[in-house]
Amino acid sequence: MSARRCSSLRISGLVFVSAMVWLGGVVVDAYDGDLDLGFGTGGVLGIAMGTGDAWGRGGTVQGDGMLLIAGVVERTSDDVGVTRVTPIGSLDTFGSGGRIYWDSGWGDDGGWDVAVQGDGKIVVAGTSRLESSNHLTVLRFDKDGTPDTAFGYNGYAVINFGVSSEGRAVAIQPDGKIVVAGNTATSEVAVARLDSAGVLDSTFGTGGIFVDDTSLPLRGARTIWDLDVVNGLIVVAGSIFVEAFPPILPDDITKAYLLAIDSDGQESVERSYDLGGDTEAHSVAVQPDGKILLAGVAEVGSSIVVARLSGLELDTTFSGDGIYTRDFGEGDDQGWDMVLQHDGRIIVAGSATVDGYVQAVVFRLSSNGSLDKFGPLSEGVPQGYNAFMFGIESCARSIAITNQAKLVVAGDAVAANARSVFFAAQLVLPSFEIFADDFESGGTTEWSLTVGNLE
Question: Whole-angstrom Cα distance, residue 114 to residue 105?
């Protein structure tokens, strides 16, 4: 199983890492988005996994501020790898040396997303190879990193969609049920719900699996990257490839894709959006008022794009036309994840070529879609973003807010020896105020929210 990497440009030279500095014996005040110098080395950390390359794909934080990273680890074959990092940027006493691995024994496997249950157990969604096919697979581990043998079959559950499939995203409902999403080999959406024991939930869809309605007019090869679950509504996001259909559609195009599924998996609605040429939605989040945010990449300069929907249409009160686009101007830019602050501001993480290097980037938007004060100073004011890296290139794949008023970023990096490693960073949020028990993991289960009917 190949692991998708950030678009990269490698240029030799000095690596610049932005941070707070000492001036005349006085520490410069930290602004929202500054690197936390008490984490790792200068706020960043690279984590070698296994004996080969490793790619961090998903991350989340526990209530104690510990960061969990799941991904793909190259060993004898590709395996699922998970590590846990302390709030000061060191590996925790977890598994063996702070790392755990899982191998199906049949071929390439990989983890793509991770979530924490209310009881502290760790759930990973990804892909495993069983006999001749790949399958969306859900793993559960106890707090210490040992497989939870009470879950599924000896700690894992393999979901059979009838064709090869792969997992990309996982969310835990307040009732403990587990929702997973991904893709099938026939370019259909793969969504399923498991109960807390790792068994398909018979009250959802058909035997626990959402069955795509092929009678819907929107057809094309779809790729799913993320999901969010709020008040039972399952919102799945990705991209859809639409073939040319002259004269209505003269050229092929890839659009951002959204699928909303009701709580019992029986009704759904899907939409596609042109957010600036070929577009992919890599992250989705639902605001407390029910508006939906998408973040990803747009073709215009290969830019990071953020869009907001109201009633499944672009919300023109956001950035003028519903779309905010950020082009750093030097190369490919990609948005991969976002998290919402309680005041409505939106923090986006991804990668961009900045100062000649592919770096992890984080920026913040106000609730109306304008660039907010964030990151290190430029000419006396925060420049609006922070770019940072480990080694010679880095990509932020996930971002979350801890209950210690910190932003934690997880992803992958290329170390100075050209080996791919898991990557973590921590930024400070001195203005942040905690307001919900669940918010440290970026969750919204404590928010009061009413989502309208699917129409």
Answer: 21
Domains of the chain and any CATH numbers: 31-436 (2.120.10.30)
Burial class (CB in 10 A: 0-12, 13-18, 19+), 435: exposed
Task: Give the H or E element holding residue 9.
Answer: none
- The total of other beta-carbon atoms located within 10 Å of residue 136's CB is 28
Retrieve residue 298's tokens: 């747009």
Residue 407 has phi, psi (to 5 degrees) of -105, 125
- How confident is the model over 203-223, as pLDDT tens digits? 999 999 997 765 455 567 899
Cα separation, 168 vs 394, whole angstroms: 20
Is-contact 112 80, C-beta < 8 A? Answer: no
Residue 193 has pLDDT above 60, yes or no: yes
The rounded distance, in Å, linking the Cα atoms of 403 and 44 is 19
3-class secondary structure, 324: strand
pLDDT digits (tens, 9 = 90+) for 116-159: 999 999 999 999 988 788 999 999 999 999 999 999 999 999 99
Sign of the alpha-carbon torsion through 23, 26, 30, 36? positive
Q: How far out from the chain centre does Cα 391 lie?
A: 22
Residue of 398, 450, 443 lying closest to 70 (CA atoms): 398
Residues 6+ away with beta carbon under 8 Å from 141? 82, 100, 121, 122, 124, 147, 148, 155
Task: Determine if the peptide bond prior to 247 is cis (ω within 30°).
Answer: yes
In this structure, are residues 241 and 254 in contact, taking their beta carbons and an 8 Å threshold? yes
Nearest to 43 by CA among 451, 360, 432, 392: 360
d(CA 25, CA 269): 59
Q: How far is CA 142 from CA 105, 174, 431, in A?
A: 21, 19, 34
Residue carrying structure tokens 């240029």: 11
How is residue 372 annotated by DSSP?
P
